[in-house]
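User: My collaborator sent over this chain with a note saying "see what the structure looks like." That's all I know about it. Can you take a look?
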Amino acid sequence: MIARRAVLVCALLATGPLAEAQDVFYRSWRWVKETSAARAAGLGGAMTAVPDDASGSETNPAVLTTLVKSELMGNVLNQRERTTPDGDALQARTGFGFLGLGGRLSSRWAVGVYAVEPQAVRIESGSALASGVGRVEGTLTETGVSAAWRPASRVHVGVRLSATRLTLDGSYRLQPAGGSTVLEVDTAGEATSLTAGVGILYEASPHVRLGLARLGGARFEIPRTARLNGLPEQALDGDGPSVVRQPSVVSGGIGLLAGTRVLITGQLDYVRYGEIQTPFASADPGTAPPRFALFAWEPRVGIELSLPFSSMSLQLRAGLSGRSAAGAERSGTAAAPLPSVPPPAPSPVPPPPISRTALQEIAAALPQTPRGGETGSLRGAVGGSLVTAKGLRLDLAVRFGAEGASLLAGTAVRF
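Assistant: Without extra context I'll predict from the sequence alone. Here is the result:
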């Protein structure tokens, strides 16, 4: 989407539409995970109303009862190295992307399982942080199980349970012009969150399908510590670990089948960025932590053309996804002066710990960018599949746009 601002705190991620972490420590880490299945990526992620695809176990579990045959699919995801406008260097990486299996148990019941690694990134923050430098390494993995039921001939409903695991390791150093370190912040930890999702698919006609899905956001607790001018280490986020959250997403979609060769799909995501609460200590005692003010609408569209041949068929697809600009609510537009805390004098008596009030002053001193002026962005995708008469499908998709390029390649087999 995506406003690239440095404000205060750790964040994630995410499926389709995405906002970045508004944190000088975690910078370009994503709030929301992106689609990692190759066919779905080629359609711009607009999959809520697309039937007969095992990747629906992640995006809309209700579509599992539309599977004609059981399907096993998997792909790898390669992201290219790039530098963001803020100066962050995102390292290239290759991961497994998406693995999934879905099938019908009867005419009314179907089940599916999946595993996805939508994010695994190393970020090196650049000079745009003024006097601060930092890095973060993070990996997000999700595994889930889905079940679908067909209560009527045109109605499909489904549920999804998933476990999402986040691993983070990062550091940040804020230095004055003189060169000595004023503030050092470190984070390292792992956390797992359980979430649920529900979906429905309605076949309005043989050529029109309507889908609706609500996917819950994950919540993680990751500890962070800080040292100011060499004083003893303190927990940074008040009385406990910082809370890193993914926002929940509500998606509505439509799928139109024009004849037997053209599929047109559209989707509108309501991304609840306002659920995300900045976990940093409040700037003033007793006040609520900042929240992301935006509840964003983010569109997706895709088109797929099928070209049948004697022993195989070729599928060509393209898609677009819109990203909103999302920012954190925080008063003021300029960083406050750095707190004057002299280094401890040599003494056998240990120096006093930093008070919570001092940490709140540190929060107010961190670099930030004024609100306003953010705009959304578009991301494009193209892809294709080669489908054999024996049920083997080879998939390829390329995503491009403001967030850099990525390549997805995989296969699916039906039995």
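A starting point for your reply to your collaborator: The first helix runs from residue 38 to 42.
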